[in-house]
Amino acid sequence: MTEDSPAPTSDLRPATLAVTAGRPPHTSDEPLNVPITMASTYVAGGDREYGRYGNPTWAAFEDALGALEGGRALSFSSGLAAVATVLDLVGHDSLVVAPRNSYSGTILQLADLESRGRIRAELVDVRDTDAVVKACDDAALVWLESPTNPALEIADIPAIEAAAHAAGAYLVVDNTFATPILQRPLELGADLVVHSVTKYLAGHSDALMGAIVTRDDELLAVLKGRRDLIGAVPGTLEAFLALRGLRTLHLRVERAQTNATELARRLAGHRALDEVRYPGFGGIVSIVLAQGAMAADLLTHKTSLWVHATSLGGVESTFERRRRWKSEPATIPDALVRLSVGIEDVEDLWADLSRALDDLG
Ligand SMILES: *Cc1c(COP(=O)(O)O)cnc(C)c1O
Fold first, then answer.
1. CATH number at residue 236
2. Are residues 230 and 312 in the same domain?
């Protein structure tokens, strides 16, 4: 017996969408979840045809993320594959405006495109709304990351949206840090949202994936065409894991945020620290060690729960000194340690971290 399942609609709240969107119809004896479909090719005559053009497991993930962001999603092999696909939208010699403290991979892509004469890039202090608005003037694409990784700077998205659109530019928001649980840029007027699905959306440090979300069907078709052509498609297992992770996104983000808020409060004024940065939401806290980069490196080797690792947004707490990467912008303090606060018990996290900080002397 088949019963039509109610299609998730935008009047459902995020927690309900995270759990229900992208599920198959409720049909007796059929699985509740979309299974892993391993297929490089499909029987001819339909829409998919070939494994590079589509996959039911990706489609389920895309339906769920699209519902959460309030648009339609396309999945990619990594966050940077999604970034590259978006940056490729602009014409030759176009101006792209972006935060100077964007994710280092995004900065590297902009520098690479610029060095090859493909685009012009203007890097801005994203907190300085007047400067960003001014830079929008002859832009073709305005890139925002808010909060930025790892400086945790916040952009005035509505003000910049108005300026970008007045200039006829696309507005893109990398929403990796906030996730659609805390911020939905399409509702604020952004044309495109980009995600490193690798981080909070998948959430368990076991899969690399990216995504783009938009409400503009023409843009979606162009981006899908680019994905078909370039082939930067996700693995089926990755899409399954990302969707599995997405089902608990709201709980994980809420708990990480509660933990991060408490840790930021306790860290404030610690004598080992020059600075504690927390934008007031999300699960990332950045601290700057008073005794410099060596103390920061030492800290990352003195804990037992906190894992010294790059990346972020997993259930487990991780941290690293970002400037240990040569590619990190020099505007990031040398002694800055980015904490990706997980969903463990905050008292255990605090005991481990504060012991290591006190040990620094
Ligand atoms: C990690 C990250 C990316 C890149 O995503 P990958 O999945 O690692 O390719 C892009 N933007 C932000 C904000 C990130 O943190």
1. 3.40.640.10
2. no
Q: How far is the CA of 342 from the centre of ligand 1 (A)?
A: 18
Q: Do 199 and 68 belong to one domain?
A: yes
Task: Kindly give, in sequence order, each residue whose CB lies less than 8 Å from that of residue 360, ignoring residues fewer than 6 positions away.
Answer: 272, 289, 291, 295, 298, 299, 302
Enumerate residues lining ligand 1, CB below 6 A.
Answer: 78-80, 103, 105, 145, 149, 174, 176-177, 196, 198-199, 208, 210
Residues 206 and 89 in one domain: yes
| Residues 231 and 318 placed together within one structural domain of the fold | no
Q: Please check whether residues 65 and 178 belong to one and the same domain.
A: yes
The pLDDT tens digits of the residues spanning 128-164 come to 999 999 999 999 999 999 999 999 999 999 999 999 9
Ligand 1 atom with the shortest distance to the CA of 82: 9
Rounded Cα distance, 343 and 118, in Å: 42
Ramachandran angles phi, psi of 214, nearest 5°: -150, 160
Ligand 1 atom, smallest distance to 209 CA:
7
Measured in whole angstroms, how far is the alpha carbon of residue 308 from the centre of its chain? Answer: 20
Listed residues 247, 280, 298: the one ending a domain: 247
Question: Looking only at Cα atoms, what is the longest distance across the chain?
Answer: 70
Q: Are residues 162 and 288 in the same domain?
A: no
- Against a cut of 0.90, is the pTM above it? yes
Kindly give the distance from the C-alpha atom of residue 218 to the centroid of ligand 1, in angstroms, as a whole number. 25
Kindly report, residue by residue over 19-52, the tens digit of the pLDDT. 999 999 999 999 999 999 999 999 999 999 999 9
Q: How far is the CA of 196 from the centre of ligand 1 (A)?
A: 4
Q: Are 277 and 261 in contact (CB under 8 A)?
A: no
Are 218 and 275 in a shared domain?
no
Mutate to test the pocket of ligand 1, among 65, 75, 77, 80 (most ligand atoms within 8 A of CB): 80
